TrEMBL record:
Binds 1 zinc ion per subunit. This is Peptide-methionine (R)-S-oxide reductase. The gene is MSRB3. It comes from Branchiostoma lanceolatum (Common lancelet). It catalyses: L-methionyl-[protein] + [thioredoxin]-disulfide + H2O = L-methionyl-(R)-S-oxide-[protein] + [thioredoxin]-dithiol; [thioredoxin]-disulfide + L-methionine + H2O = L-methionine (R)-S-oxide + [thioredoxin]-dithiol. Residues 54-176 form the MsrB domain.
Length: 188
């Protein structure tokens, strides 16, 4: 799979380069993302529907889950356990359990992080400006508890054109609550 690996490497470099390109489009206006969603995260606004004690979360979450969701960390590409997940199901916030993404909207962006072209509904994920690391990006957080999820870019596939680039460490996958109809089980 040398060729595939090479392609992935190129795509990975492109992923890192994209935020710089997006800086220009940001300055020109946020085409897809809706200004109303940029008011701030629920933590910044102090109106999270669910909040958790810091020490409680440190016990509940793994170190990488805590670092990503509470300290805006980023897992290394191709290391997250949900990057290659293809089963039907629902992706939930690892902190509060809020439903965030459907498996039907997951696609392989080649970047090493789970990627979705849409959130489950427009209120599930909050988008805010993130100007860290010398880039201007759109940060995504859980609207219920304020957990950091990742970023969203406007270079995704149809129908939305968006690419939600989400850390596996922010997500919990539930294959049982698929939005697809379950096949009736045949008993042999
Ligand atoms: Zn949450």
């Amino acid at each position: 799979m040398f060729t595939l690996r090479s392609l992935v490497c190129v795509a990975r470099i492109a992923c890192y380069a994209r935020p710089r390109i997006l800086e220009k489009s940001w300055q020109q206006g946020h085409v897809y993302l809706g200004a109303a969603t940029f008011a701030g995260t629920c933590k910044q606004l102090g109106n999270c529907k669910m909040s958790f004690d810091k020490e409680e979360l440190k016990k509940k979450l793994t170190p990488i889950q805590y670092e990503v969701t509470q300290e805006k960390g980023t897992e290394r590409p191709f290391t997250g356990e949900l990057n290659d997940e293809t089963r039907p199901g629902m992706y939930q916030c690892v902190v509060c359990g809020a439903q965030l993404f459907k498996s039907e909207t997951k696609f392989d962006a080649g970047c090493g992080w789970p990627s979705f072209y849409d959130q489950i509904d427009e209120a599930a994920v909050t988008m805010t400006e993130d100007s860290s690391f010398g880039m201007v990006r759109t940060e995504t957080t859980c609207s219920k508890c304020g957990a950091h999820l990742g970023h969203v870019f406007d270079d995704g596939p149809k129908p939305t054109g968006q690419r939600y680039c989400i850390n596996s460490a922010s997500l919990k996958f539930d294959p049982k609550t698929s939005s697809k109809k379950e096949e009736p089980k045949s008993e042999l």
